[in-house]
Here is the input.
Amino acid sequence: MRQTELFSKTFKENPKDEKSPNAQLLIRAGFIDKLSSGIYSFLPLGLRVLKNIEKIVREEMDKIGAQEILMPALHPKENWEISKRWGIEEMFKIKDEELGLGWTHEEIIAPLMKKHILSYKDLPKYVYQIQTKFRNEPRAKSGILRGREFIMKDLYSFHDSEDDLIQFYEKIKKAYSNVWERCGIKEKTYLTLASGGSFSRHSHEFQTVTPSGEDTIYICRSCGVAINKEINEGICPNCGKENLKEEKAIEVGNIFKLGARYSEPFNLRDEKGNPVLMGCYGLGISRLMGAIVEISNDEKGIIWPVSVAPFSIHLILLEDGIKKKADEIYAILQKSGFEVLYDDRIDKTAGEKFNDCDLMGIPLRMVVSKKTGEDTIEIRGRKDKKIRLVKIKELIKNVEGFFQ
Amino acid sequence: MRQTELFSKTFKENPKDEKSPNAQLLIRAGFIDKLSSGIYSFLPLGLRVLKNIEKIVREEMDKIGAQEILMPALHPKENWEISKRWGIEEMFKIKDEELGLGWTHEEIIAPLMKKHILSYKDLPKYVYQIQTKFRNEPRAKSGILRGREFIMKDLYSFHDSEDDLIQFYEKIKKAYSNVWERCGIKEKTYLTLASGGSFSRHSHEFQTVTPSGEDTIYICRSCGVAINKEINEGICPNCGKENLKEEKAIEVGNIFKLGARYSEPFNLRDEKGNPVLMGCYGLGISRLMGAIVEISNDEKGIIWPVSVAPFSIHLILLEDGIKKKADEIYAILQKSGFEVLYDDRIDKTAGEKFNDCDLMGIPLRMVVSKKTGEDTIEIRGRKDKKIRLVKIKELIKNVEGFFQ
Here is the structure.
C-alpha cells in the first residue's frame, strides 16, 4: 500500500488523556482512534494487526476441532434471569431493561446447544466465536487492554464426562500456548492459577507480565507457574515452594471448567437426564494486540512481531529524484508476495519518514536513496541496530532470509 | 467437513414464530438460530455464507480504493447531540442515557476523519467497515431481512468538490452492481430513486423484488428504473413515462450524497474553511444473505449460488458398506481444493439425507451408493432435475466443468 493513499496520519505528541503505553503508541502511530473512555476505532493499520491475530487464533481453534459461529451482542433479560446473573453490574443495559449487551455468552450458548445436543452421541462438541463484547467498566484507563467495548474469542465445550472435559481442557492449554508463541508473547506469559468455582479447585488464567497490567500475580521461581493475587497464600499450590515473585500482569486468556453451572438452569441434558458438562475458554483479541505493544516497543515506537505486523516491509523513498527506482522495487517486492507499506510521500523530510517508520514498527525497513546508488538498497530490521547494504539483484534472497 | 462433526441439526417443521421464508429456511437448515425477535445467531453453515458475502463486498470496496476500518458500536451521546440526532427512536440507549448503540456511523466517522483530513490535499478518501449495527425495531418480523442486530457494510467518502463526489457516487453504483451480480440477485435488484435531502434531489436504493419485502417500489416498464413509494407520483422521474408496476421489495443497499450535512456540525473542513463534502453508502450483509434465500429457493429448500454457498459439494454416503469408497472420494475432492460437506452419518435413512441435502442447498450433490458400483458416482446440481453418472477417474474434470 502506498502511504500517500493511507488516510491515517501519525502524531508527534502522546495523547493527553492516555497513560498506558499501548494506547499512546497505537494512537500516535495511527493504528487506533479513541472515541471515548475504553472505546476505540481500529484504523487501517490497526485493523490489519487485529485480523492477523484473529487468523492465528482461528487456526489454533480449528486445529483442535472447534466450530466457529457468531452469536448476538443483544441479550434478552430472560436468559440472564435463568442463570441468576442479570443483576451483575458489568452488563450494559438498554434503557427499558429488557435487553442487555453481552459481556460473555454462557446464557446464549447453553440454550442454543440444547436444540442441537439431543444425546450423549452428540458429544463432545466445541464451539467458538470471535465477537464484539461490552462491559460496563466505570474506569477504563488502560487503552485496549481493558475496554468498554472489545473483541474476544470465546469457546465453549460440551462433554458427557469429567474425564472428557479434562482432556479437552489440556488441549486448549496447548492451543493457547501456541497462540502466545505465534504472537511473540510466550516468554512473558504465565499459566496462572486462579479461583475455580464449585466444579474445580482452580481455573487457569494466562497472564502477560507488563508494568501497566492491572492484575497482580506471584510467579513461582521454582516451577514457573504463577498464582493470581486473589488466591495467593505465599506458597505455590503447584510445587509447594515459597519462592514467589510479585509482578503486574494482564490477563490475555482464561480457561474455566464450568461443570453443570449453566447446563442445570438451562436444562441442557443428555437423554438419560444427566447435565452436559461445560468448559469456557476466553481469549481477548484486542487485548492481545495491546499486550503485544506493551511488551514489544522501545523509545522510538512499536516493534511488531512478523506474525502480526500490519505489513512485512516498510519501503521508504528517501528523497525526490529516485522515485522510479523505488517504484520498481515496490513492484518487485509485491510480485514476490510480500506485503509492503511504501512511503512514497514527497512532502516529508527524511527524519520525519524515519521517525514514522520506527513508530509504526514494521519488521523490515528498506530505504531507497541517492547515496546507495542505482543497484544497491539499504535494509534494517526494526529490532536491529545495524544497517546492511544489499544488491538489488540479491534483494529477494536477502528478504526471504530475513523472514525465515 | 464431516457432517458427523457438524454440531448443527436440521429441523423438519417450520419454526412457529417465523413467517418469512428466509427465517424459516435458514432455521430449518441449521444456518441460523433465533435468540429473540430480530436477533439471530449464525451457526457454522450460516457463518460460512456470511463470510463469503463479506469477502465479495470487501473485494469490490477495495477495488475502488476504499480503506477498511472498524468503528465501535457504543456511541457517546455528545456526538449525536452535535448532529441533532440523539432523539431518533431507532437508537437503543444504554440505561443511563449517556451511550447509545450505533445504527449508522456519520457521527463517529466525521470527527474521526477530522483528525486525519487537514487539507484538500488529503482528499478524496474512502473509508468503510463491516460491522454489527443495532436498531430499535418495535416489530422485527422478517427474519434476517430486518434485525434489531445486523451486520452492515457502511462506506463514507470525503471530497473537495461536488464533481468529485458525483464521480465517486457513480463508481459505487457500479461496485454495488458487481456485488449483486456476484451474489446472484442482480436480475431481481433495481436501482431505485428515493428522497434525497437538501444536497441532492434523489438518493438511490437498491431494491430486490420479493413478496416478503417490506418496501413498496414502482418499476418503470419503459426504462427499468424503480421509484420508492415515498416519492412515487405515478410517473417515472427518469424517463417521464407512466408505465409503472408495483412490487414488494427489500432494500439491500442505499447510497446518499450527504454534502455538508455532517461536516458542518463536526467542523470537518479544509484549510480554507470549506466543508468537506461527504457521501454515505450502506449495504446490508446479513440482509443480503436473507435476500438471496428469499429469491433462490424451492419447495425443498434453499438453492445457494456457487459464490456464497457454505460448501461447493455435498458428498453423501448413502448406505453402510461403501464407506471406504466415499472416504476416498472425499479425500480426492479435498485434495483438488474443493470445499466439501461430507454426509458420513450412518444413523440416517437415504430419504433423510436427500431431504437435508436439498434443504441446505449446496450447489453440487454427489451420491456414493452400492447401486452405482465401484467406479461410478452419481452427481446432480441443486437446480437440475437430472442425475448424471460419472466415472470416478473423470470426476474432477466433471466437477470442474460444473463450476465453470
About this structure: Residues 81 and 87 of chain A are 8 Å apart (CA to CA). The first strand of chain A starts at residue 32 and ends at 36. The radius of gyration of chain A is 24 Å.
